[in-house]
What we know:
Helix 8 (188-200) links the parallel strand 5 and strand 6. This protein is an alpha/beta fold and 307 residues long. It has one domain (22-297): Aldolase class I (TIM Barrel, Alpha-Beta Barrel), CATH 3.20.20.70. The chain has helices at 22-33, 39-51, 64-75, 97-104, 125-137, 149-153, 157-171, 188-200, 219-236, 251-265, 282-295, and strands at residues 53-56, 89-92, 110-114, 142-146, 175-179, 205-207, 241-243, 277-279.
Amino acid sequence: MLATGFELPLEPRLPRIGSVDAVALEERAGTLAKRSIKREAKLFALDLAVRMMDLTTLEGADTPGKVAALTSKGIRPDPSDATVPSVAAICIYPNLVPTAVERTRGTSVKVASVATAFPSGQAPTNVKVAEVREVVDMGADEVDMVIDRGAFLSGRYAKVYDEIVQVKEAAGDAHVKVILETGELGTYDNVRRASLLAIAGGADFIKTSTGKLPSAATLPVTLVMLEAIRDVYEETGRRVGMKPAGGIRHAKQAVQYLVQLHETLGPEWLTPDLYRLGASSLLNDVLMQIRKEKTGRYQSPDYFTVD
Length: 307
């Protein structure tokens, strides 16, 4: 029996939790971050970063007009270069889902909505589940939920698990990304434990952060989560997606995350179906780098629309 607080029914669903070797983890994350890719491989990675992007706006002052403009940019990131692909999804607050659904109709761009009392997760379970049903009824293709970190940190793992199960059921065919808010979990061991718990509950993706804390996605934390995904896959054959989010602002960082993904999970995960980059300000820098790789010179940032 696991001595971690998991209820018995969870045990068959989880690989061995184990303990994370922080020194080895950080060393590997640092080594992978130094990998250099050039020319065609770099252009491929930048193109892939755009296709994997969840273009995000989660501000209190968001309006239908802002979401409409963001959606247009997500569909055609660089109007002067038709070879630049669309982003994977637009990620927004629930009340703006209808605007995004209308604007993305007939395109490949998905609509993702945060839910479950984002970003705190501090609401009764029935309220969270009702919100999920509402955003799916409005047309959201994906739901980004937050776990109850208070419950997790006080050892009430069964409550966290049960909420994920209920959210997954309420979401129906919509994909569920479970946000761990790793900056509040304290240790790599907790990040691994929460990752496995979310996967056991039915998460289609696990996601690092809400983007609302100073401590967001980091390469070591993302590596912990990727290794949890790898262990589940090796034990069960089930593929779970990953989404680092928050603090990824530069093309160089995006490439580092993709190198880490390739080296940990392999080329099968190099698809928007299994990997996303949460981004609000990353796209313009990636577009500048794509233009530089194609033309040999940098384009002024003013050339691209403000996110």
